[in-house]
Fold this protein.
Amino acid sequence: MIPEKLAKAMNEQIKNEMESAYIYLSMAAYFHAQSLDGMAHWMRCQAHEETIHAMKFMDHLVDRNMTVKLLDLAQLKTQWKTPLEAWQDAYAHEQFITSKINDLTSIAREVRDYQSEPMLAWFTNEQIEEEATTNKISGEMEMVGDSKTALLMLDRELGGRAFPVGSPFDPTAYAQAT
Ligand code: OFO
């Protein structure tokens, strides 16, 4: 069992991670509409990762004999003024998620649930990478400025991100599976 205060916060974190997936899918839709298919591909890969994060929390609760209760997802943002603004939002969102992981770690220590610490440490490390990546791309987008050539080059580069094998967010994978 997990102390109720921590279990409730972890249950809410499942929602936060699923919202992350949905936010990044919304950004993918926006980038597709801007003909930035490489950036859309990157966001679809990211949405896949976020669902894995949600499953990590779900499985931790299940393994500890707790009942998971899925919560409503928040209303989505679907439009951005510029591609740069979308990337800046992605970075801000990762900073928000980091604050949530920090809160969970504090609660785990407060209620002395040491069994949750290894998993939360994994997320703490993961957030360093998530913030660094989105911050780096935001910075590169600022350097791109008004250059369409530079924008297309960055779009191509981001389109090279690899999907996990068989990901349902990968159009080539689900085309083979159906
Ligand atoms: Fe982007 O790390 Fe989970 O939410």
In short: The pocket of hydroxy diiron-OXO moiety is lined by residues 17, 20, 50, 53, 94, 97, 130 (CB under 6 Å).
